[in-house]
Write a structure and sequence with these properties.
The protein is mainly α. Helices cover 71% and strands 0% of the residues.
Length: 105
């Protein structure tokens, strides 16, 4: 495991939850990528822990009805209260952007 993954173990958990969605829905990487509007290559990088989901990806997931709080934290929130979900999403996006910045530098 790389130093980056040691410092941010949640990346492993996020990747696992993406795989869980694929398994639960019986989707291929290509089908899921098309469904949410990203490239299969980018999805593959997220699944292999080589990329961190961007804020744009999280918004695409939320727009498709996926619980992004669960994807990021493992705690289900549901989308019934989008205002609260949005606050949590913004928090997680800020955290991910910090991780991406630190990974690049």
């Amino acid at each position: 495991m790389s130093t980056f993954l040691n410092k941010y173990p949640e990346v492993v958990d996020i990747s696992s939850r993406f795989q869980e969605i694929l398994d639960r829905e019986g989707l291929t990487q290509e089908t899921f990528a098309k469904k949410i509007g990203i490239s299969r290559g980018y999805l593959s990088k997220v699944l292999s822990k080589k990329a961190i989901p961007s804020g744009a990806l999280l918004i695409k997931l939320a727009n498709q009805g996926y619980d992004v709080t669960w994807i990021l934290s493992g705690k289900a929130s549901g989308l019934a209260n989008w205002g609260e979900e949005k606050k949590l999403l913004e928090f997680h996006i800020d955290r991910l952007e910090e991780m991406i910045f630190k990974r690049k530098h």
